[in-house]
């Protein structure tokens, strides 16, 4: 029970973090995630942290690291479901998660990824700003 | 950290079980799930248990109970990602999960739900068997 499952949902991957991760779990998650991004050519990673009441600097750095890795692999990372206390703590820790998009919940995160990755889906697609 | 998040994904709800649930957690999950089925008028519930290496009779009964409750509320439950050892144990325990659909992973579970709930999606829609 020391492995956090990575769920493939179409072009995206979904991870739900429910426990305080240990170092080993975080490493395993990074490995699994990068492996699955590679294997399934995923364009986006959703990390749901709605179950986290609080967060420490380790978890914050882990999120930032995963986002950096997936960004290098051309997959956009969206952290969803962040609770107010977690957001406050992250900023107080100086971890503003550069390069990580955030969304209120998984649905909005999916919408965000779709709008970013499929610009010519339904709109005129005039957004050319990507980071 | 004693609450298992229920994620809304369109018309469906997704629960990822990663820990051995205690009684209280299971009760909370039932409450959350029924509340969300009611609030969002969800037609399907996906329960991912790919992180479970083993399962006991309590967990098996919990899955069966949740499926019964959501079925009464007109939402189909699909258990996805069941590992071989878990399937063996469930059958050995006499818990064959009546009324619960299963699928290999979340994607196939979603397809299953869509095919059940939207019969006239792309096919001729001649399946009239529902349980």
TrEMBL record, chains A, B:
Name the UniProt record assigns to this protein: Anti-sigma-factor antagonist
Organism listed in the record: Solidesulfovibrio carbinoliphilus subsp. oakridgensis
Entry superkingdom: Bacteria
InterPro entries: Bact_StressResp_Reg, STAS_dom, STAS_dom_sf
Domain STAS: 2-113
